[in-house]
Amino acid sequence: xxxxxxxxxxxxxxxxxxxxxxxxxxxxxxxxxxxxxxxxxxxxxxxxxxxxxxxxxxxxxxxxxxxxxxxxxxxxxxxxxxxxxxxxxxxxxxxxxxxxxxxxxxxxxxxxxxxxxxxxxxxxxxxxxxxxxxxxxxxxxxxxxxxxxxxxxxxxxxxxxxxxxxxxxxxxxxxxxxxxxxxxxxxxxxxxxxxxxxxxxxxxxxxxxxxxxxxxxxx
Length: 219
Known about the structure:
219 residues; mainly alpha; 72% helix
């Protein structure tokens, strides 16, 4: 039977008149599995890094391999989640935790072994923790997007730390010091940029909030 112009249309199952909400992908998808693999690699990497006193070139090479695998999964899990629509609440929480866990374990481990100055470890970890807290500070008003500089910082950090995990001498040891220097500069520079963004976004958010309150009071 043909419905007239005023006839009601059938509502989907569930709440009357409401459009069905898209279902979130299950936790057990390839992107989340790669994130969980990276988390599992953290203790494995630490054990390999400190194996046989922590300075055996063979064990350090194996430790480097586990670190490299972790860094590769970091590249692919986010890309897969975005391309295949596999973004989940678990992934949003676990992915940054896994990133910071493997990098923090490497930096602290290398400093304990005396291969990396503690001030570098402190600068990098303080920046990462500070930016994470700052994102929560402004999340009510806006989300601070990842910048190209931030992505370059992550790549440079990964290369530099990976080179320090290996036992290198001569020109290669000099090269890794240069790469680490670039990583520290990018770490500080992008950190200051994020601070500026956070302050600006918070001010803009507060201004919008005050304008909305004034508009509501004038009605």
